[in-house]
Amino acid sequence: MREPNPDKLNELIVKLVGDLGAAIAGASILLGDRLGIYKAMADGTLVTSSDLAKRTGLHERYVREWLSGQAASGYIDYHPDKNAFSLSPEQAMAFAEEGSPAFFAGAFDVVQSTYLDEPKVAEAFRTGKGVGWHEHSKCLFSGTERFFRPGYGANLVQNWIPALDGVEAKLKAGGNVAGVGCGHGASTIVMAQAYPKSRFFAFDYHQPSLDCAATLAKEAGVGGRITFERATAKDFPANGYDLVAFFDCLHDMGDPVGAGRHVKQTLAPEGVWIIVEPFAHDDLKDNLNPVGRVFYGASTFICTPASLSQEVALGLGAQAGDRRLRQVAAEAGFTRFRRAAETPFNMIFEARA
Hints:
The chain is an alpha/beta fold. The protein is built from 14 helices and nine strands. It has two domains: about 5-95, Winged helix-like DNA-binding domain superfamily/Winged helix DNA-binding domain (Arc Repressor Mutant, subunit A), CATH 1.10.10; about 105-350, Vaccinia Virus protein VP39 (Rossmann fold), CATH 3.40.50.150. It has helices at about 5-35, 35-40, 50-55, 60-75, 90-95, 105-115, 120-125, 140-160, 165-175, 185-195, 205-220, 255-265, 290-310, 320-330; strands spanning about 75-80, 85, 175-180, 200-205, 225-230, 240-245, 265-280, 335-340, 345-350. α3 (about 50-55) crosses α4 (about 60-75).
C-alpha cells in the first residue's frame, strides 16, 4: 500500500463530505419541490416549522427536519432569534419560481434518474451496449424539460434566434420550423408563442414525450400551431424548413453525421440548422470545472449510453466541444458553420449548406 500524504487525504475527505451532503440535499430538493414546500415559502415571509406545516398540510416534525437540512445547505435562510426560516428572492428564483431563468429544482429529477438507472448503466459498462433514452426512468424526461426550459425561455427568442443571420425576420413573416428531438416540447413551444405567423413541426422517436409535449403545447395556447409527429432525426419529413432546430440532443444520437445529412435535405434554400449543445471546450483539461463536472456526469449515465444504443454509436458525449461538432457538420455536407451565441451552459451554432 502506498503511503498517503495526510494533508492531501484530509483535503479529499473534506471534499467528499461536501459532496455527500450535496448528494443527500438533492433528494431533499426533490421533496421540497414535489411537496410544494418551496412554493409555500415563495413570498419571503418568516415561517416556523409549525407555520409551514399548516400552510402545506404536512407533518410538522418532518417539516422541521427538512428546514434544518435546507438551512445547513444554504438553500434557505435561518433566523435564530425567531427560530424561523425564509426564502430570499434569489433562493425563491432557484427553487420556487418555475418561470424564473434561474429555476434549478427541476434539474434534480435528472439526478434522480441517474441513481435509479445506475444498474442499467453498470451493465452497459460491462457489455459495451447502450441504454436507450426510452429505457430510463420517467423522471429523466420531465427533469430534462424542467432543467432546460428556463434557459430556453430566457435566451432562445431574446438572443439565440436573433443571432442567426436573417432567421428572425423569416419567422416573424411566417416560416417553416422543425424541432427535432423535441422531448416535452419546451423549445418549440417558446418559438411558437413568439412567432405566431410561423408553422412548427416537432419530432421525437419517444411517443410518451410527444404525448406530453402536445398536452403542454395545448396548455400554453399553441397546440393548434404545432404538429407533433413520431420520427427520428434521420427520417423526419422534409418540408422545406427555414429552420431546423436540434436543442441539446445531437450528442445523444448514434449517427449525428447521418442526422445532419438528412437535415440538409429537408432545408429550404438558405435554410438554417441551429444546433444547441452543452457548453464545452475542445480539450478535457479546460472542461475540468463545475459545469464540465455536471455535463460529464450526465453524459456518463444518459448521453453516451443513448448514443451507444443506436446505429453507428459515435458517442460524441455531452462535452463534444466546438471542434468535433464542426467536424460533424462538415461531414454532413454543411460548408458554413459558426458559433452564433453562447451561455455558461450552452453553445449555439448556425450551420448552412
